[in-house]
Amino acid sequence: MMELALLSPWVIFLFIGVLDWGFYAHAIITLENATRAAAMYASNGATAYSDTTTICTIIKNEMSSLPNMQNVSTCGGTSTVAFTSTQVTGPDNNTAVQMSVTYTTPTMIPIPGVLAKQFTITRSVTMRSTS
Predict the structure, then answer these.
(1) Which residue from 42, 53, 55, 83 could staple onto 101, CB 3.0 to 4.6 Å apart?
(2) Per-domain residue ranges for the chain?
(3) pTM of this prediction?
């Protein structure tokens, strides 16, 4: 009983840390997939990269499994998710689209010195344009 009383706070502390890390890993994977899907759409056609409504819809649909994305209606400003889409010259000197998506995680249980209570994660993808 004494060992259980002394060790259980540490085990609970570690369990919370593992739970937080698992959520953050899921959020990063989902964000990468949403960025890739939005870049694929934006690279199809000469003006697709400027179709912000459709790009926002793609990102919201891809990230709908995250808990703080349920009531998100816009992309940008003070929203949980924001993106930028620009036309650039790719490494092969052809037209490309650079998509950058930023996501703010919900507030989790902080672990001092290890995990903050909230992160802002940004992922960028550059994809050759098909036009």
Answers:
(1) 83
(2) 2-128
(3) 0.85
